[in-house]
Write a structure and sequence with these properties.
The protein is α/β, with parallel strands linked by helices. It has one domain: Decaprenyl diphosphate synthase-like (Undecaprenyl pyrophosphate synthetase). Helix 1 crosses helix 2, helix 2 packs parallel to helix 3 and helix 3 packs parallel to helix 4. It binds 3-methylbut-3-enyl trihydrogen diphosphate (IPE) (2 copies) and magnesium ion.
Length: 238
């Protein structure tokens, strides 16, 4: 199954809360199960040979949740970064975190930086975690960076292209996602990778994230393989 494997799959891991609710458990249990599902799915991704995967872990809008839920998620994240680093490194995974770090606790930022530095030369797979991430905020930050270059005389406004704009995004060295998967039956983007998803194929899965398994990933890839990516050109059969 090497031919036709998407180079980059982005995932909106949604439905942890509803997974827990359905079992009369606190939402935190759902997040914990969600972290376990991610751990398992990464093993599958390596086995399948997916070069890049991006996981939406916490959005800029998720800061509006209750303090206790945010604390639960941040605690989980802290433990995840600590416990998974060695496994990531051993598996040849390079970790990259995108998002607004200024809102994260200092010790979490340090864990992220350490993990990024330690894994930066790994080549088997790149795992991007979107944390405190918002697509609009990312685009605004890129616009500011470009504006500063123009102000300083380093760039002429006529020279602003899609390529140079893309270079100011968090994802400058990551190819755009070929496939976006969202779990839990919701069919929206929720401020994820607004620029980068311009031509991604989208697969929406009914299952809640904690139940998403290797089988579901393979099914989503097979669905992707059936799609005809036209990028605005006329259909082959037309
Ligand atoms: C996704 O699950 C995880 C985060 C957004 C952090 P949710 O927490 O959104 O779960 P639902 O959508 O409420 O079920
Ligand atoms: C999107 O899920 C963010 C993550 C999965 C991290 P949300 O649950 O926050 O999105 P909405 O609120 O349903 O759009
Ligand atoms: Mg949700």
């Amino acid at each position: 199954m090497t031919k036709g494997i998407p180079k980059h799959i982005a995932v909106i891991m949604d439905g942890n809360g509803r997974w827990a609710n359905a079992r009369h458990l606190p939402r935190a249990f759902g997040h914990r199960k969600g972290a376990e599902a991610l751990r398992e799915l990464l093993k599958s991704a390596i086995k399948i040979g997916i070069p890049y995967m991006t996981f939406y872990s916490f959005s800029s809008e998720n800061w509006n949740r209750s303090e206790s839920e945010i604390n639960d998620i941040m605690g989980l994240l802290r433990r995840y970064l600590q416990s998974e680093l060695a496994t990531f490194h051993k598996a040849g995974i390079r970790l990259k975190v995108i998002g607004d770090r200024s809102r994260l606790a200092a010790d979490i930022v340090r864990l992220i930086e350490d993990a990024e530095v330690q894994t930066c030369d790994n080549t088997k797979m790149t795992v991007v975690m979107a944390l405190s991430y918002g697509g609009r905020q990312e685009i605004v930050e890129a616009a500011k960076a470009i504006a500063r270059k123009v102000e300083n005389g380093d760039l002429n406004s006529d020279e602003i292209t899609e390529t140079c704009f893309g270079q100011e995004l968090y994802t400058s060295e990551i190819p755009d996602p070929d496939l976006l998967i969202r779990t839990s039956g919701e069919m929206r983007i929720s401020n994820f990778l607004l620029w980068q998803l311009a031509y991604s194929e989208m697969v929406f899965v009914e299952k809640y994230w904690p139940d998403f398994s290797e089988k579901d990933l393979i099914q989503a890839i097979e669905e992707y393989q059936k799609r005809e990516r036209r990028y605005g050109s006329a259909a082959e059969t037309a």
